[in-house]
Amino acid sequence: MAADHVRAVLAALVMLSVCEASGLGPAAQGEASEEAAWVEPWDGSVFQPPSPLGAVGVSCQPGAPRPEQEETADLPVLLWWSPGLFPHFPGDSERIECPRGACVASRDRRMRADLRTRALLFYGTDFRASEAPLPRLAHQSWALLHEESPLNNFLLSHGPGIRLFNLTATFSRHSDYPLPLQWLPGAAYLRHPAPPLHERAEWRRYGYAPVLYLQSHCDVPADRDRYVRELMRYIRVDSYGKCLQNKQLPTARLQDTSTATTEDPELLAFLSRYKFHLALENAICNDYMTEKLWRPMHLGAVPVYRGSPSVRDWMPNNHSIILIDDFDSPQKLAEFIDFLDKNDEEYMKYLAYKQPGGITNQFLLDSLKQREWGVNDPLLPNYLNGFECFVCDHELARLDAEKVHAASFGDIPVPEPHIAQSSHMDCPVPTPGYGKVTEIPENDSWKEMWLQDYWQGLYQGEALTAMIHNNETQQSKFWDYLHEIFMKRNQNL
Ligand SMILES: *[C@@H]1O[C@H](CO)[C@@H](O)[C@H](O)[C@H]1NC(C)=O
Ligand SMILES: *[C@@H]1O[C@H](CO)[C@@H](O)[C@H](O)[C@H]1NC(C)=O
Ligand SMILES: *[C@@H]1O[C@H](CO)[C@@H](O)[C@H](O)[C@H]1NC(C)=O
Ligand SMILES: *[C@@H]1O[C@H](CO)[C@@H](O)[C@H](O)[C@H]1NC(C)=O
């Protein structure tokens, strides 16, 4: 689902990045962004098959100046090893202008061993340890973009996996290019007025429940359905998605939408009839927050949330969401929801952040202000291009430091290696949504899938680290390494 989001961002930026890189003025960019608003959601057809090497520099207009080949010849190259995310169009290479200087972004894998190729860029969801480019070359940084759910690749949730990378852009505030607010367009999105309570009271008379659940991805690491099923014993929940479904969306058109992702106005209007939205992320990691959290707030509903353990840090004030983990049991939570449901004054306190001056969390406001990229905002760069420039600047600085080192005949030391940390993907071991792991039978699908996957991720990171350490280049041996690690672990159990 988040992948669709990235792709939509990409599609909207296809026009912009083309202009940006060829250095046209703001007027031309404005035109491009107007067009960008009309670009269809990305369906895979926007990108063309790779074209031959050498298509460096793309211009917006036939008459626009093209960067000279000589000028680009010596620039550091950033190679997108995950070619699907290459944020330029058309062609395989593009000169990019960044605050510190220029680089060439490319997705032509023939550049892999080139001395000019200073960084390989990976997309976390696509990264496979068994396909990693080996041997790892000492002069190249590995840069990771992984803003999606950790469930897409548990390799990265463990120290050995994440430490393979030098630079990261993840949902964590601790990553090098942090994206925790990637799903929040801005403060105004939160301030959007809530529907009057009497309207919602009216819907209740039509038989609506106080609580909404809308989930179609059912078996996930956070095991949310096990919790919601229990909660449903104590309070009425209308569930419209495939998970725990007990109601149908009112019109055939809405039933037809992939509801959980859409920003369809008719669907949003429908959802806003509910006072409480169950908002449970598919995986639990610090700073992993998605539209499941922000959308109910936009609609003036109170999220009943389980997800990022550090979510409080990002809330508009300290009384805007209900945290599931504050309650000892689903029953206690249900009692509290029921209490709020019957006390308008208490309920409205949860929406106080919508009033002027109601957003009191300066950290949130500063974070929104300081980020240089936008969400669904064709006037701002997207974070793909932003991350690319971040890596470009980092590599230019590293090159400079290497030159200073060489010119000093070794007096000034080589730049320190920069290595990613576990905190860049801070995802603890998945736990059951309700109850204890020992109480859940071994053949439970959650236990079979996610716990196994999670630990497999650790072994994969270890196997790849060992291969790099041994300068082992034959990918086919990866499975032998993995097997060896797995057997050792089993013996120690
Ligand atoms: C929450 O905000 C209120 C009002 O601004 C303040 O008095 C209170 O101390 C805050 N509580 C916490 C836990 O930060
Ligand atoms: C990149 O990280 C690796 C560890 O994964 C480290 O050995 C290497 O020195 C780092 N390279 C740079 C350029 O910082
Ligand atoms: C799991 O095992 C129990 C007994 O061992 C059995 O009754 C149950 O049907 C099994 N469930 C599944 C999903 O296979
Ligand atoms: C690693 O292997 C490559 C290719 O097999 C070789 O060229 C290189 O010298 C090796 N590096 C080290 C540090 O042994």
From TrEMBL:
Keyword Glycosyltransferase attributed: yes
Matching SUPFAM superfamilies: UDP-Glycosyltransferase/glycogen phosphorylase
GO cellular component, one term: endoplasmic reticulum membrane
GO BP: positive regulation of protein secretion
Residues annotated as domain Fucosyltransferase C-terminal: 211-356
Signal peptide: 1-21
Family annotation (Pfam families): Glyco_tran_10_N, Glyco_transf_10
Protein name per the record: GDP-fucose protein O-fucosyltransferase
Gene symbol of the encoding locus: FUT11
